[in-house]
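User: Watch each token:
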Amino acid sequence: MTKDKNKRVYFMMKHELGLEKPDPKRAGKSLFNIGVSYIVGGLIPLSLYFFVSDGIDGLKIFAAITLVCLFIFGYFKSWMKGVNPIGGAIRVAIIVKLADGCAFGIASLIQH
């Protein structure tokens, strides 16, 4: 094994690092999964705008729904980590909404 570099690397990857040789077809599967996820994930929030007459109203509703979803996500994330779930939920919601506000502000500045 010491003479053959490929055998040594394979042994180290498998037994020391616990890594397996990657499946060559995995890249295509991952590409498909990520692409479909982006399409579905993008269509869900955009579908709200089909049901409102004004874009700003849609944005307000979307922001409220997103805030609730972020709170739920933060709650369960913190609960799984063993941290105070309410505090974690509030922290996640505030941080992401601050980032949203900054992005909206920058977009408004660029638009004008």
Summary: The mean pLDDT is 86. The longest helix spans residues 55-81. The helical segments are 5-16, 26-47, 55-81, 85-111. The two ends are 67 Å apart (CA to CA).
